[in-house]
Amino acid sequence: MIWFSALVLIPLMAVVVTAIDGGWDVFWSTITSGQTSAAIKLTVFTALGVTVVNVVMGPLIAWVLVRDRFWGKSALEVLIDIPFALPTIVAGLVLLSLYGPDSPLGIDIANQRPAVFLAFLFVTLPFVVRMVQPVLEELELDVEEAAASLGASRFTTFRRIILPSLAPAIAAGAALSFARGVSEYGSLVLLSGNLPFKTEVTSVRILSSIENDNVAAAAAVATVLLVISLTVIVLLDVIQRRVAARG
Amino acid sequence: MADTLTREIDEPVAPAAPALVRRERRTPMTYVLRLVAAAYLFFLVAWPVSLVATNTFDDGLGSIRALLEDPDVVVALQLSAYVAFFSVVINTVFGVGMSLLLVRYEFPGKRVLNALLDLPLSVSPIVVGLSLVLVYGGREGWLGPTFASWGFDVIFSAPGIIMATTFVALPLMIRELVPVLEEIGIEQEQAAESLGASAAQRFWRITLPSIKWGIVYGVVLTLARSLGEFGAVKVVSGNVLGQTRTATLVVEEKYLNFDQQGAYATAFLLAMVSVACIVVVAIIRPKNHA
Cβ separation of B126 and A203 shorter than 8 Å? Predict the structure, then answer.
């Protein structure tokens, strides 16, 4: 307990205290200043967009991994985990090699907004898939077959039977991937160019405040991120409780 | 009692394998889904990652050799390994302790603690670095000046890097162990206690062997995460060449200095380690969950 507080809680509290130290006005003017608010908006909206993509692609990939059988499936399984284990800076470099200036595809999105989107997409890939997969594995085929035998179309079966049972897992995965997206830093350093007002995300903004020795500003922006993470965690806890209550 | 004992000690009877005779309904939809999933993963993960390998070996083994002959890079790799080692040790010891605490004991604030444990996973690494600097910074941190007066600098030296790394990798071990501990229950330990085993004996001979695979899995994940930590380390390390520059910082430095070969080679080494970690986990996991 003490170890946990010394390592995690006290430092995080220090951030909040430093942010409040300057008073509400300073805090507010920091996070609403042009460059910072542009960064926060870009981060949050991109993370939201990525989460939407993950909500669609995550269950789809999980579905293929669970229900389908084909050659090379275990290779796909390993691929899913790579973004999680790959150092984020390497992830940035990796994406740059395919979608950067020397791209063999002829797509160059380095230093543009889609780069931020792409980087988020890469690092958040495992979350929804890994949350949905175990639930889908436990799902009984019988229920679906019963529905089908009663005349439900495949679409109806999916919408009325499968989707409701996957919903908590999808929501939890979406929350995690949103949180991860908002806080992403490493993979963007090389890929996005960090142009103010254009591709600069919140984490980068904090870092440049630190490097300019403006700790109060850094702490203020960091507090915004902390609040987002906390909200996500509370949300996750609520989702888990609801699932536990239902089971 | 004897009944419980024999039942628990005996290998649990494997449940009869469920007849996996699935009525395969292969509609065009199946193939479309399969194709979409495979293509998505290919363009997002497989192709980019394989490009790093080909870029590294563009001119044979030259770039890797050049890398390993650069003393600064060697120091950085050593530092990364050293930091990852300590972070794994610390997280293993405390992870086991915290998991036991969370599973076995009831106390006020447990739910809050449980939720807060996820915080390091969702907080930005930059925020992690900032928070550590605020508390342990040598000049104006809360505790930093005290440590500094004892002649012990935390920030901008190895202890700070270890702390940052431990922080970000903290939940992995605990999240791995808690479900395992919940599953094994406490009957065996009660039995051992009734037969006169001391607390230490019960821990070493009963609890530890049964969570062995959980620990191994947690160690591998923690290792991968620790080696690859970048953002938090960047803030706390000061990035002093040959002293506090870790392997991930080398990748950035080399790329920004237009040494693409060097950057790709370092990235390749790091990627190899993390892919190796995943493969190890993939091999261990079926044994564990069978």
Answer: yes
Fold of B60-289: MetI-like fold (1.10.3720)
Tell which of B27, B49, B93, B126 to mutate to test the A interface (max A CBs under 10 Å). B126
d(CA B58, CA A95): 18
B124/A4 CB distance under 8 A: no
List, for residues B139-163, the tens digit of each pLDDT value: 666 665 666 666 566 666 777 788 8
Write down the ipTM of this complex.
0.76
Nearest to A210 among B34, B125, B130 (CB): B130
Query: What's the angle, vertex CA B10, arms to CA B200 and CA B290, rounded to 5?
Result: 95
Q: Say if the Cβ atoms of B235 and A88 lie within 8 Å.
A: no
Q: Which CATH class is domain A23-246?
A: mainly alpha
Put simply, the chain B residues between 45 and 104 with a CB less than 8 A from any chain A CB are 45-49, 51-52, 55, 94, 98, 101
**Domain boundaries, given as residue ranges, for chain B:** 23-56, 60-289
If 0-12 CB within 10 Å is exposed, 13-18 middle and 19+ buried, where does residue B9 land? exposed
Looking from the CA of B238 toward its CB, the CA atoms found within 13 Å total 16
Q: Tell me whether residues A82 and B49 touch, CB distance under 8 A.
A: yes
CA-wise closest residue to A91 among A112, A114, A121, A111: A121
Give this prediction's pTM: 0.76
